[in-house]
Amino acid sequence: MGVEVSVEGLTKSFGSQKIWEDVTFTLPEGEVSALLGPSGTGKSVFLKSLIGLLRPERGKIIIDGTDILQCTAKELYEVRKLFGVLFQDGALFGSMDLYDNVAFPLREHTRKSESEIRNIVMEKLELTGLTGAEGKLPGEISGGMRKRAGLARALVLDPEIILVDEPDSGLDPVRTTYLAQLLIDINAQIDATILIVTHNINLARTVPDNLGMLYRKNLVMFGPREVLLTSEEPSVRQFLRGSKLGPIGMSEEKDDAQMRAEMEQAEAGHNDGSPGEDELRGVPSQMQPTPGSPVRQGELRREKRVSEMLDTLPEGAQNAIREEWAARGHGNGNTATAVPAGAVAPASGGDSASGIGLDDHYGSAEN
Ligand SMILES: Nc1ncnc2c1ncn2[C@@H]1O[C@H](COP(=O)(O)OP(=O)(O)OP(=O)(O)O)[C@@H](O)[C@H]1O
């Protein structure tokens, strides 16, 4: 089962440039969380801090009971083994074929025989739709395949925490949905704690259990996804709509004069191309595991956890949560009445039916 990751009062600067300060939140064990935020707000710096590649100057990062900012190098090495990380470009070794790339962590960190390694590598390549592509070099395949190969490699050591940096970068919307589905299915299968950093609003609205947003060097909010998705906080609304209108400017923050000028342009009829104020409002149904997958244990734990805090949430979030539970036949926190997650999932391969699959052509690993 995935482990809880708890961050307390975390502050990171590079020289005099403060990236974020006093960041506090908990990634609940085995749940899927996503972190949003305008470019440059330090989302990647945050992921790198979680795995100990960067060192915040203040605060705690407690992973499975160990504060990685205080522990010994040996303890940090052990904690790092809990992680599987999918970097934006897959971070594959260019001179190794996909098989050797995926086998690499097993050869480096375990004493498994080559035949054991082969079984694991082929299983993960199959899981990520890459069977048949094991002999290809990263330079010979598409960005989508590189991402899936990076995911296959992130999974070989059975991680308890999976960090995913911008899963949609370089992918078309259909492949982004397939990759998101893969993450949800993996969560159902291995119950890992997952944190996704993304700009993709559709993914953020439909995939995670919990959502947070970094802005102005702070964590604006973090909690059950319904809280952020029903928030009236101007920076959150602006970000969700992808609108020019609001406090977020080209380089993070804009001044009052620019905000006023843009409001006047909008009132005079200028269209910035973003959806209307009422579009992208509300909470869409959450992506479910592919039918036939195990029930997501993280979802069941979340239902219990959220039901215990429900009264403390803003009213809009409470209503959205109750509506979703009612629509799915879940009891108020009564996990015994939960329907199998797969039972409410969209039909398997629904997108494939219209022609685009995980692979460009059915049966081919190319895309
Ligand atoms: N090693 C480093 N040394 C100095 N500054 C850095 C370092 N790494 C990142 N930064 C700075 O930290 C800030 C946040 O960068 P980061 O890549 O984390 O942003 P981000 O939110 O992930 O952005 P994007 O969404 O565009 O990927 C940037 O100003 C960047 O220049």
From TrEMBL:
Task: Give a Pfam family name.
Answer: ABC_tran
Give the Low complexity compositional bias ranges. Answer: 333-357
Give residue spans, biased composition: Basic and acidic residues: 256-270, 358-367
Q: Which domain of life is it from?
A: Bacteria
In Gene Ontology terms, what is one molecular function of this protein? ATP binding
Q: Is Nucleotide-binding found in the keyword set?
A: yes
| SUPFAM superfamilies per the UniProt record, alphabetical | P-loop containing nucleoside triphosphate hydrolases
Question: Mind telling me which InterPro entries this protein's record contains?
Answer: AAA+_ATPase (IPR003593), ABC_transporter-like_ATP-bd (IPR003439), ABC_transporter-like_CS (IPR017871), P-loop_NTPase (IPR027417)
Keyword list (alphabetical) reads: ATP-binding, Nucleotide-binding, Transport
**Domain ABC transporter per the UniProt entry, residue ranges:** 5-241
- Which residue ranges does the record annotate as region Disordered? 244-301, 329-367
Q: Does the keyword Calcium apply?
A: no
Q: Which PANTHER family match?
A: INTERMEMBRANE PHOSPHOLIPID TRANSPORT SYSTEM ATP-BINDING PROTEIN MLAF, PROTEIN TRIGALACTOSYLDIACYLGLYCEROL 3, CHLOROPLASTIC
**Designated name of the protein:** ABC transporter ATP-binding protein
In the record, what lineage is assigned to the organism producing the protein? Answer: Bacteria, Bacillati, Actinomycetota, Actinomycetes, Mycobacteriales
